[in-house]
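RECORD TYPE: inverse folding
INPUT: structure tokens
STRUCTURE:
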């Protein structure tokens, strides 16, 4: 599959992931040392905050010889504040850049952007929708660590609003031997569309509020932030429901891995960081290599 716009994790197939991850391995091991993107310009338009995603995308293109033009606070410092539409913004930025990376609070907006853009558009998080490149680096990390496509993963937090859970689920649904345990308060269970997708794909999944027994059963524990920005006054009610702390470590599998797309608030306490099963910082580092591979594949 030739990659162009990347707006949803739903667009990937197993072969494309295999190729992308093989390429990522090569980059990570230092065997790919080529300024192949020299002369290419990446625009990053971020209407919501970011640390890892924007920096790793920018670092990725710089390492490959390209350059970047960036609006880290596009909501305030681009013409959006004057009322310019995304359609018009894209019709301008696509003449200045070879690829456009967008983070925006509105779900689905990168599809709209892609339909107007002459250059590839990458979704770096669209509201409560998706975060496909986060899912790519998550899945890459899982396969790198577990070395199998047959495992149980407990995804914990807010499945209604937290976009990394949506995109990761879509990628996981390509692999029929994976079991997914969705841990959340009932009110924060997954969107209907995702549930239907999993059923259609015949994925073995369960939905529960039982954090303690789920993490015991899991080979991969994937914690997520409770996103304050979408929950308003409800936020406090859910904050602190599922905390993985040092005490919990004695109950989980010896070879489990603990992941988090970050930033964390209190879902994983800092005293867990030194446990060898805690791999979230490595996971974030993989974001650089996966995004390098992705930019090379697209451009
Ligand atoms: N950095 C991720 C995102 O933008 C996760 C988060 O915000 O908590 O979706």
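DESIGNED SEQUENCE:
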């Amino acid at each position: 599959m030739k990659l162009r716009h990347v707006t949803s994790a739903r667009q990937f197939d197993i072969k494309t992931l295999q190729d992308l991850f093989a390429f990522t391995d090569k980059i990570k091991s230092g065997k790919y040392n080529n300024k192949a993107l020299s002369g290419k310009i990446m625009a990053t338009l971020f209407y919501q905050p970011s640390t890892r995603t924007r920096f790793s995308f920018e670092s990725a293109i710089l390492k490959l010889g390209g350059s970047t033009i960036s609006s880290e606070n596009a909501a305030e410092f681009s013409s959006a504040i004057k009322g310019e539409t995304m359609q018009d913004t894209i019709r301008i930025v696509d003449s200045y850049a070879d690829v456009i990376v967008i983070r925006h609070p509105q779900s689905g907006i990168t599809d709209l952007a892609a339909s107007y853009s002459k250059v590839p558009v990458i979704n770096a998080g669209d509201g409560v929708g998706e975060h496909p490149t986060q899912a790519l680096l998550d899945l890459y990390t899982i396969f790198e660590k577990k070395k199998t496509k047959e495992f149980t993963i407990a995804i914990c937090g807010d499945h209604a609003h937290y976009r990394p859970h949506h995109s990761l689920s879509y990628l996981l649904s390509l692999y029929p031997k994976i079991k997914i345990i969705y841990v959340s308060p009932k009110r924060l269970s997954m969107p209907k569309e995702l549930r239907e997708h999993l059923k259609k794909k015949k994925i073995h999944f369960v939905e529960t509020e039982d954090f303690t027994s789920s993490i015991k059963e899991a080979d991969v524990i994937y914690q997520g932030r409770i996103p304050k920005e979408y929950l308003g006054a409800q936020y406090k009610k859910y904050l602190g429901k599922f905390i993985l702390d040092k005490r919990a470590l004695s109950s989980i599998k010896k070879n489990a891995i603990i992941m988090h797309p970050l930033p964390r608030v209190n879902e994983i306490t800092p005293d867990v960081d030194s446990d060898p099963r805690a791999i979230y910082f490595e996971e974030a580092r993989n974001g650089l290599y996966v995004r390098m591979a992705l930019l090379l594949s697209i451009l």
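NOTES: The chain has a mean pLDDT of 97.
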